[in-house]
Each structure stands twice: as C-alpha cells, then as structure tokens.
Design goal:
Layout (H helix, E strand, L loop, with lengths): L2 H14 L7 H11 L6 H25 L15 H25 L7
C-alpha cells in the first residue's frame, strides 16, 4: 500500500489515452490533456503521488543515516500529525481513483 497502487492506476488511464510517457507525472499530464478524469482529479492524483513518494524517500534517507538497509516499511507512529493526516488524504484520493477506475472500465462487469 503506497506508490505501487497509485502508479498502476495512472498506468491504466495512460494506456486508455495512448500515452507513451515513461513516468507517472508525464502520464498524468497526458491524462489531463485527454480530459478523461473529472476536473481536478488528475492533479489530486499527482499531489498524492508526490506526497507519498516524499514520505517514503524521507524514511529511506533516515534509514541510510542510521546505517540500516533502506526499506518501504514506514511506521505510522514515526510520522508527524501533519504527515499522518496528509497520508490519510492521499490514500483517500487513491481509493476514490480506484472506484472511478472500476466505474469507467466496468471492472466488475461479468462477461458471458
């Protein structure tokens, strides 16, 4: 639970619009240009990806400073209240994006 589901969500939309971009931020620009998401939703995804990535990189930098192998296992109790609140918001944006993806591409539709 982190950047991977968000990156995957962005990839699906990017494929749908024929994006040839090779990173998530460029893919989001293509998605914005295509206008397939509700207004502001792509920017929310971009902000969420940026924030989650920043928290992860800061955690890994701390691991390096402490002389331990960097990982992606972030303990919530080591985060500030600000970071916890904003991560909660970022994960809500991800959840909303996943729900929209299901709706847009009818992921639960059964084929006979």
């Amino acid at each position: 639970r982190g950047t991977a589901p968000l990156v995957d969500l962005i990839r699906v939309h990017a494929l749908a619009v024929g994006s040839r971009a090779q990173n998530s931020f460029e893919r989001l620009d293509d998605i914005i240009d295509a206008g397939i998401l509700p207004k502001g939703r792509a920017q929310d995804l971009k902000d969420a990806l940026e924030f989650i990535s920043m928290v992860r990189i800061r955690h890994q930098a701390t691991d390096v400073e402490l002389g331990i192998e960097p990982d992606n296992n972030i303990e919530p109790e080591n985060l500030s209240d600000f970071e916890r609140r904003n991560l909660k918001d970022a994960f809500q944006i991800l959840s909303n994006g996943q729900n929209f993806l299901k709706f847009r591409y009818q992921a639960n539709k059964s084929f006979k």
